[in-house]
């Protein structure tokens, strides 16, 4: 029936090879319902519609176009469509039990997950399992905050695997390396060098040294924890931070370009709490704190003396 439908749409018969390829493609697609739905969506996206009446479709009268054109078009379409559907199916099958979460220049977002909350920062991509029986998270880039009241969670990158039990922690992955902020619970990480465990609030910097991953640890104070976890609630806490560093920390949450036009302002020190959702208020508050001027447009924020 499917081959007959294609024949009617093209007003030409399928060759033996085309019929064989088409039937094989259909047989592959109907193995599961998800593949069938994806194939239907793909066909509809291409506007490859059936005619109002499948009983008879008159041959198209197109004398100005060589008769071979329709056959060539169909011959190109069938394998390309099959390849495209195959690639879509292969991608979805590889991650059929996961959901991709991605944030751009946006505010952090909280997701209820298992017995806790996962927070995705701006410019972050991660894969989370859809099934409640799975606890594995794959982190691609950015910053991920996890607050698990009970149970176990596993977070992996290409070089590190963390396992937390009733844990509260942030993991940041950037071109500069991996940074871990552990606030509560038990956290174990696995590297090619062995297994390590944290049970007290600790900041860990991971650096690549050849094939091994070296960890540098320092304890976190209660004030450190307040400052480091504020981003989850859409707040930026600065504690004697330079203006240059403050703008770098705020930049991921806005598409406005943040600039310092007078270099001597870069080292100005700032302390305070600022809402990530209000870049203009942030700029005006900073200007009052360090007694400078600020120019705000629909594209940029610039600090001048």
Automatic annotation (TrEMBL):
GO molecular function terms noted in the UniProt entry: sigma factor antagonist activity
Protein name (Swiss-Prot/TrEMBL): FecR N-terminal domain-containing protein
UniProt lineage: Bacteria, Pseudomonadati, Pseudomonadota, Alphaproteobacteria, Acetobacterales
All copies of domain FecR N-terminal, residue ranges: 2-41
Species of provenance: Gluconobacter oxydans NBRC 3293
Pfam families: DUF4880 (PF16220)
Signal peptide stretch: none
Tree of life domain: Bacteria
InterPro entries: FecR_N, Ferrdict_sens_TM
